[in-house]
Specification:
single chain, protease, 13 helices, Pdz3 Domain, globular, seven-stranded antiparallel beta sheet
C-alpha cells in the first residue's frame, strides 16, 4: 500500500513539473518527442500526434524529450524535424523560459496544494511549550500553553516567520490567545552568546551549572576558538565553577554563533499516547523513564534524542558558560512510569522495544491543534502565504548547504521519501497532502539551483548566451550537462546511502 501511495504521489509531482516544460515547449513551437514518467525500461507507451507518453519502470522522476535537445540524436532530429521546431535553434530567452517552466509549475502546484489544504483543514497553531526563565519572553509575560496569534499585526501561520523576526533582533508586538482571551505583548529579543552542544563518549564525572574551562582554556575565549585546540576522538575535560569535572572522549561538537532569542520553545509532540500500543493505552502520559523526568514536550524531545545512546554517552548543552541541559544515554532495560486516569503505573520494557514505539507514526499526540480563519476565501489566501513561508524556509536551508551551515546528510532521497510517505499515510490524508505540497515545493527549489543537468544550470547557460550575444557550442554545453549529471548521480547515491542507514537504524 505504501508503494502504491508513493508511486501515485511521485507520479503526480513529476507530471506537474514536466507539464511546465511541455506546455512552454509547445508554446514556442518546439516539437516534443516524448513525455516520460519514470526512468529505465519502458512499461508501456501511448503514441499521440506528435508526442509519445511513456511510463517507465523506475518511478523516480521523469523528463520531456524535445527535438534538437540531445546532442547524441541531433543529426537524426534534423533529418526528421523542421529546423524552426528544434530546441537548439530557439532563441536563448525561449530556452530559458522552457527550462524555468518546470520549477515554476512545481512551485505553483505546491502553492495550490497548500491553499486547498488551508481551505479544508486550516492551519497549525504556534503554541508555546516552555518559557525560559529570566528571558525576554518570561519578563514580557508569555506563558506555557499560549498560542501566538499574530506578530506585528500579521496573522502567524508558520513558526519560521516568528523565528526570522526574532533573529532580526527588533522589538516585536505579539498577540497571544490565552484561555479564550487575546493579550498583546511587547517583547525585544536578547542577543545570546555562542552556544554549543557536546556529544561525549565514555564520560565520567558530573557537570555543574557554570562552565569555567575546557582543557584549561577559559570558556570566555569562545567555543569557536577553543574548538581549534582539540579534535573529535580526543579526551577533553570540562571544569565547572562548583568544582565538578567531566572527562570524556569528544564524539561530536556543534557550535552556534551569537543569535537573538526570546526564550520560548514551540510545542511539537506531547509525551501522551495517541493510540493503544503494546501495554500502553491511548491517553497514557509518560512521566519518567528511569531517572529522567518528562514534564512536557520539550523534555520528551530530549528523551527521543538521547534514548538510543548508551549509558556512557553524555550530551551537554551550553549557552555561553551556562549549562542548559545535561543528558545521558540509557541502558537496555528501562523502567517507564506513566500516568493513566490519575494513577501512576510503572512498566518494564527493553530499550529496543521502546524505541520502536517512539518511531511509530502518529503514536503520540501533537502539542498543537489546527485553527480555521473566518471564511474559506481567507483560508485560501492564508494557504498561499503558508506556502510562501515554507518556500522561503527551503531556500534558506539549501543556501546553508553552500555556506557550510548544513550538510547533505540532512537531506532525504527516494528511499527516505518512501518512508515519509508511509508515515504520512498512517497519520491520515491531511499529512499526505501536506507532504505532497512540501515535496512539490522542494522539487521546484532544487531544480532552480544553478547546477549542470538541472533546470537552473540550463537557465544559467541561456543567460550567459543572452549576455555574450552568441550561442555556446552545443558540444561544450552537452559535456557540461553530462559532467553535472554524473555529479548529481553521485550525490543521489550518497543521500540514498544515508537513507538506508537511517532505515536500518
Amino acid at each position: 500500500m505504501v508503494a502504491l501511495y508513493f508511486i501515485v504521489i511521485f507520479t503526480g509531482i513529476v507530471v506537474a513539473h514536466e507539464l511546465g516544460h511541455y506546455l512552454f515547449a509547445k508554446l514556442f513551437r518546439v516539437k516534443v518527442l516524448e513525455f516520460a514518467i519514470g526512468f529505465g525500461p519502458k512499461l508501456f507507451s501511448i503514441k499521440g500526434k506528435e508526442t509519445t507518453l511513456s511510463i517507465k519502470l523506475i518511478p523516480f522522476g521523469g523528463y520531456v524529450r524535445m527535438a534538437g535537445e540531445d546532442l547524441g540524436t541531433l543529426e537524426e532530429d534534423i533529418k526528421k524535424v523542421p529546423k524552426e521546431r528544434l530546441f537548439n535553434t530557439k532563441p536563448s530567452w525561449q530556452r530559458f523560459l522552457i527550462a524555468f517552466s518546470g520549477p515554476l509549475f512545481s512551485i505553483l502546484t505546491g502553492f495550490i496544494i497548500f491553499a486547498i489544504a488551508g481551505a479544508i483543514w486550516g492551519f497549525p497553531e504556534v503554541v508555546v511549550e516552555r518559557v525560559q526563565p529570566d528571558s525576554p519572553a518570561y519578563y514580557a509575560g508569555v506563558q506555557s500553553g499560549d498560542r501566538i496569534v499574530s506578530v506585528n499585526g500579521k496573522v502567524l501561520i508558520e513558526s519560521s516567520v516568528l523565528s526570522r523576526k526574532i533573529k532580526a533582533g527588533e522589538e516585536l508586538t505579539i498577540t497571544i490567545s490565552r484561555n479564550g482571551n487575546l493579550v498583546e505583548l511587547n517583547v525585544k529579543p536578547q542577543l545570546l552568546p555562542e552556544s554549543a552542544v557536546f556529544v561525549l563518549e565514555d564520560a565520567s564525572g558530573n557537570p555543574g551549572n557554570r562552565l569555567l574551562n575546557i582543557d584549561r582554556a577559559p570558556v570566555s575565549n569562545g567555543y569557536s576558538t577553543i574548538a581549534q585546540m582539540f579534535q573529535v576522538g580526543e579526551i577533553i575535560e570540562f571544569s565547572f565553577e562548583n568544582g565538578n569535572k567531566v572527562r570524556a572522549v569528544l564524539k561530536n561538537l556543534s557550535i552556534s554563533k551569537p543569535y537573538f532569542a526570546l526564550g520560548i520553545y514551540y510545542a511539537a509532540f506531547e509525551p501522551v499516547f495517541n493510540s493503544d500500543i503494546g501495554d500502553f493505552r491511548a491517553g497514557d502520559r509518560i512521566v519518567r523513564v528511569n531517572d529522567f523526568s518528562v514534564e512536557d514536550g520539550l523534555d520528551f524531545s530530549y528523551l527521543v534524542q538521547s534514548i538510543s545512546a548508551n549509558p556512557s554517552t553524555m550530551y551537554l548543552y551550553f549557552t555561553g558558560d551556562t549549562l542548559d541541559k545535561a543528558l545521558k544515554g540509557f541502558p537496555e532495560n528501562l523502567e517507564v512510569e506513566i500516568q493513566r486516569k490519575g494513577n501512576n503505573i510503572t512498566m518494564n520494557i527493553t530499550k529496543s522495544e521502546f524505541i520502536s514505539i517512539l518511531e511509530k507514526p502518529n503514536a503520540f499526540k501533537q502539542g498543537f491543534d489546527f485553527w480555521y480563519p473566518g471564511n474559506v476565501f481567507e483560508a485560501f489566501s492564508l494557504g498561499v502565504r503558508w506556502a510562501m513561508e515554507l518556500l522561503r524556509t527551503m531556500v534558506g536551508i539549501i543556501s546553508n548547504l553552500f555556506t557550510g551551515q548544513s550538510s547533505l546528510s540532512e537531506f532525504t532521497g527516494p528511499i527516505g521519501i518512501v518512508k515519509l510517505v508511509g508515515d504520512a499515510a498512517k497519520a491520515g490524508m491531511k499529512m499526505v497532502i501536506l507532504l505532497v505540497g512540501l515535496i512539490t515545493l522542494n522539487l521546484g527549489v532544487v531544480n532552480l539551483l544553478p547546477l549542470p543537468a538541472l533546470d537552473g544550470g540550463r537557465m544559467v547557460l541561456a543567460l550567459v548566451e543572452m549576455i555574450i550575444r552568441r550561442r555556446i557550442d552545443p558540444k561544450i554545453e552537452a559535456y557540461i550537462h553530462a559532467i553535472g549529471f554524473f555529479i548529481l548521480i553521485g550525490v543521489l547515491l550518497y543521500i540514498t546511502f544515508i537513507d538506508v542507514g537511517r532505515f536500518l537504524g
